[in-house]
Amino acid sequence: MLPLVPVFVLFCCRPVWSAHLEHDQDTSIPEGWTHAGRVASSDRVELTFALRQQNVDKLRGLLESVSDPDSVQYGKFLTLEEVSSLVRPSELTQKAVWGWLRSHGVTDCRTVLTDDFLQCDMTIQAAESLLPGSRFFRYVRGQHALVRSPAPYSVPDDLAQHLDFVGGVHRFPAKLEAVSRAWTNGQRPEAGFHLGVTPIILRSRYNLTASDVGCAENNSQAVAQFLEQFYHPADLAEFMALFAGGFKHMSQVARVVGTQGGGKAGLEASLDVEYIMSTGANISTWVFTNPGRHESQEPFLQWMLLLSNMSSVPWVHTISYGDDEDSLAASYMTRINTEFMKAGVRGISMLFASGDSGAGCRQLSKGSNAFRPSFPASSPYVTTVGGTSFKNPFKVTYEVTDYISGGGFSNVFPMPDYQVNAVNAYLKAVQALPPKTYFNTSGRAYPDIAALSDNYWVVSNRVPIPWVSGTSASTPVVGGMLSLINDKRFLKGLPALGFLNPRLYKLKGQALFDVTEGCHLGCLDEQVEGKGFCAAPAWDPVTGWGTPNYPSLLAALMD
Length: 559
Ligand SMILES: *[C@@H]1O[C@H](CO)[C@@H](O)[C@H](O)[C@H]1NC(C)=O
Ligand SMILES: *[C@@H]1O[C@H](CO)[C@@H](O)[C@H](O)[C@H]1NC(C)=O
Ligand SMILES: *[C@@H]1O[C@H](CO)[C@@H](O)[C@H](O)[C@H]1NC(C)=O
Ligand SMILES: *[C@@H]1O[C@H](CO)[C@@H](O)[C@H](O)[C@H]1NC(C)=O
Ligand SMILES: *[C@@H]1O[C@H](CO)[C@@H](O)[C@H](O)[C@H]1NC(C)=O
Description:
GO terms for molecular function: metal ion binding; serine-type endopeptidase activity; tripeptidyl-peptidase activity. The protein is of the alpha+beta class. The chain has two domains: 16-53 and 88-167, no CATH class; 179-183 and 219-556, CATH 3.40.50.200.
């Protein structure tokens, strides 16, 4: 936990002590958003209160044992109700928070099954008196408008011990979008001859046969999308008709949770659904899309709440979403990690895209740079997926690094035990590492695994689009394959894979195609000359352990 920094503020003519819960949160306005004036005090805002949980250490211990194949507890997952009785905030915490809200006239609140989040609708006036220091303004980007406070908020000192953070005040929606390189790079000379990645190409590269499709009762997988983007059912149907011959698959999403806006389909949203349903073929697929009543208040957080409010959710979730780790408050990320642990002990696998900026770059001061990790990719409690390209773009050959593949070392979360040997072996074996000032060797290193991320075909708004690239492509591809493995496990009466990393690292690369060529992007300065890390034998911070050889991976994970 972070030390709380008490500050002296003037509150209604008389000083009171108050505490900043997110003193290290970046409150600057991200590029692309324009200021559109002060919000009227009678306007409404929805805020999310993250109540301090109990037994978080116990939860972490439980996650370790249910995810470790050598533990007798392996696969003994908890129900949401059991998670709830473990982490539910104390009576004291619940009373303190509810009482504080009521004393400011805030009563329109909804909780979740675990009682550790409260979502409340209130006037701006109530919000600003509840959170001294906050001042809400309106911001617009394109069609999209939202309400945020650029000034840090505080809470009364005696409430600080009961709250982790307040959502809906500072964070803007993050961006991580698939792009078609045809659009960014212009027409490529080899267009038309190039292979292009389709379900058939993927299934051939990863050795999926026509009979490798789902058939277990109640198996399911999900993609979660928070980018004001929507997939279109007609695009999915057309995609399957065009590209998914020769294996049994579904052409419809089983369930959409949240509001699908009207209008044009997004490339990213189309990509996720089309590809998780191509590797995870014939498996019931859900789409979580901008859940919640207020689309513009932190949709990612909203999704986390939803998982704590639904007893039955899919076993595998793939998410293409991320933010610069250095822009987020440690208290927020720590709490989100706890939410990932809550999912993990239920047997849910969370897969995040590693990002599309390689090692990233952040200017520390003039002339001094460092790599820039992304969160949740850097969370020790999720499986992070990097990207590769075919060595020969005209053939199904072996894979090399896709230079955009996100990877690196967290500056916030220490390296988890499951990866210590793998990461240290890399650091020891590789001669040409970037200078030590660019990354933190004590941090959680990512990605964990990878798949092709280059030159996909996607159908969006009824049009087949080539050259679509990004780790948002590789993530659902790996997710679908894990769902297939879950499927085979269910048929054998085995539990789901759950949080994969402890088991994945114990395989030491067995059942994966090791990616050993190429480097990803880094800072464009003289010291590193545009390079981040380079792939190497075994684990590396560009492609993790490599890409799945499905039949071998299945065999390795079937007990
Ligand atoms: C959680 O689910 C309950 C029951 O369906 C509902 O009443 C409540 O509003 C939900 N909570 C949130 C934050 O949406
Ligand atoms: C899987 O694919 C690789 C490369 O495409 C190939 O060498 C291998 O024989 C295939 N089969 C199995 C069962 O691994
Ligand atoms: C497809 O899944 C259904 C269950 O959803 C199952 O009954 C059927 O056998 C599966 N098809 C194949 C070819 O395995
Ligand atoms: C599993 O089946 C039950 C009963 O049919 C259904 O209510 C539930 O939504 C299913 N769960 C998933 C994750 O598909
Ligand atoms: C390096 O990472 C550790 C966590 O593993 C963190 O405590 C420390 O502050 C980080 N150092 C820097 C310079 O960011």
